[in-house]
User: Fold this.
Amino acid sequence: MTRRIPSELKKTGKLWIFCEGSTEKRYFNDLRVIERVKIQIIPKVAGVSRADQILDKAKRFYKNEFMINEDRFDINRDRIACVFDKDDNNTKDIFDSIRKETIDDIILVYSNPSFEYWILCHAGYYNSSSLDQKDVYELVLKKMGFDPKKEHKLYDRTKNNINIAIKNAKDILKIHQKCRVELISRDSTPLTLVYLLIEIIDNYK
Assistant:
């Protein structure tokens, strides 16, 4: 459930996004600049390669065990999101651990098979359970006309179709929910929960 943020705090709070890939970093950095929102992107650091490690780093920041750019997490105003996807390092045990150990104030933003599936949702509705990372990458190249692994203006190139992407992402989610598929798992192909983060970001504009 999304925590409601009082209107008087919207302009002062900050959204911290912990992510594991360069595509995610470029997308949200572009969004931050264009929309002028108070979000801070914390990309994967050396030695952190799994979803549970990213979540652990976010949890330690949440508990004020360290600072980022001399800033501490403000529990009354700030939110944290962890953006991750199905990766060779992310096993069933890791996903089970994530579901058990998460904190309510940390938003889990999972995509399967990859973050690029969120980009693909801007082009149309693709619900094949056989989609893998290569398939999604090639579909983005073909349908969107740019390379998501190289494009630095990812948000700018896709923002005009963002409502289409949100609808497609929600429609896919409904199918998994109807079939009672565990969302944060290797079985929920395809899936993207990035739309949740996009809707929350509106609170920080």
Remarks:
- The chain is about 40% helix and 10% strand.
- The mean pLDDT is 89.
- The helical segments are 22-35, 51-62, 92-101, 116-120, 133-144, 154-158, 162-178, 194-201.
- Residues 12-204 form one domain.
